[in-house]
């Protein structure tokens, strides 16, 4: 992934795999799958979550359950996570006493959303044409709408004809005018170093900005 700041989350989506939701709010599925090369030419290697899960267990904590990576929208709690031969298997329970939890449940059972995505910080990576993610500090697992939306974002960014269009797109996504202009001029690094901005909004836009910064040089 292009964004490499250790102070911010990064995201990876599991290939589309069935996510199950039960009447009591229990949900199960895979937050990540081993050895699948994603749109960033990265793949998660078996064992990547072992240390992070052990640290959570020692603290008596779990990664958060969020809606669309929005840190201000928890929708329940994860009750169990483990690595198996396929990937990171997760079990949790939606909080049906909250509007966000009920909404997530209804979207899942109706098929409006059907995937999980992880938020993490890189700890150990093997560089190469395909980057192997060897150790990840797992922060959260979200219920998301688009588990493989990267290609759509790529096509959207490629269709832009000017920095002005890029600024407009980022502003529509939630960035301030100043922050969007900084991204259009110098990419994510310019934004993170030169101005303060809403971390939650930036986190939700991380994947979008990642794609945008890959195309900045073509627009200069």
UniProtKB/TrEMBL annotation:
It holds the Pfam family Peptidase_S78. This is HK97 family phage prohead protease. Residues 18-158 form the Prohead serine protease domain. It comes from the Bacteria. One of its GO terms (biological process) is proteolysis. GO terms for molecular function: peptidase activity. NCBIfam families: proheadase_HK97 (TIGR01543). Keywords: Hydrolase, Protease, Viral release from host cell. InterPro entries: Peptidase_S78_dom, Prohead_protease.
